[in-house]
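Milestone 3.1: sequence recovery, worked example.
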């Protein structure tokens, strides 16, 4: 038997079988040497529960990241909407000149004399955005003030009031008294009447989009139009 086995090992098939056996033993040795505890390869309830906890943890982190991404997307959309509705220098011109003209035109259309209107000043927000603001004050009958506010509300690009205060003011009128005799009509108002007026003080504000010029924007790129 031993002589037959030794003779078989000397054949090509025997040598191939011997080489395969040696390779298998090498794999088993390497597996035992580097795999550590072999129990980790076997099913276990505690390891299964630990893995499920890890999966739930990663799912919670993914949901948190998705929520943050939605908030960022909503903020970007709001910024795009503000830019679209705001004053764009390329489209609407220089606000330092034209904003004042728009307010003066709105006041003129309702026959409101502006007692004081300041110059337009700017405050930076970012490299592409800034605030343009202008102070004004006036006093007029209630109806005139309301019409003026309506005109300002309808301006495009839209403007807003950073500050707006209105106070009641009463102006007293007296009829002229002459020496000429006249008949008193009890149906007419008394010789002294009052007119309700409002004193308006405010600061008008707009958001201006003025993108920084780059090589790309000079060739037709740049911000929204």
């Amino acid at each position: 038997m031993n002589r037959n086995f030794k003779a078989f090992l000397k054949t090509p098939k025997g040598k191939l079988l011997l080489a395969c056996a040696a390779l298998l033993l090498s794999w088993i040795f390497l597996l035992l040497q580097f795999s550590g505890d072999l129990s980790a390869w076997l099913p276990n309830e505690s390891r299964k529960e630990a893995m499920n906890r890890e999966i739930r943890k990663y799912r919670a982190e993914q949901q948190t990241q998705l929520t943050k991404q939605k908030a960022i997307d909503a903020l970007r959309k709001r910024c795009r909407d503000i830019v679209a509705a705001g004053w764009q220098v390329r489209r609407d011109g220089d606000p330092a000149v034209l904003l004042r003209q728009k307010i003066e035109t709105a006041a003129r259309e309702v026959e409101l004399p502006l007692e004081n209107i300041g110059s337009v000043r700017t405050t930076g927000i970012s490299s592409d955005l800034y605030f343009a603001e202008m102070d004004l004050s006036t006093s007029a009958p209630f109806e005139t003030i309301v019409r003026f506010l309506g005109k300002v509300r309808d301006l495009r690009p839209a403007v807003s009031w950073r500050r707006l205060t209105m106070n009641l003011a009463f102006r007293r009128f007296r009829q002229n008294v002459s020496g000429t005799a006249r008949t008193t009509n009890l149906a007419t108002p008394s010789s002294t009447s009052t007119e309700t007026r409002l004193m308006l003080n405010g600061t008008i504000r707009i958001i201006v989009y003025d993108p920084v010029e780059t090589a790309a924007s000079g060739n037709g790129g740049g911000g929204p139009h």
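Residues 176-193, 214-225 have pLDDT under 50 and may be disordered. Helices lie at 2-9, 12-34, 45-85, 89-92, 95-109, 142-153, 215-218.
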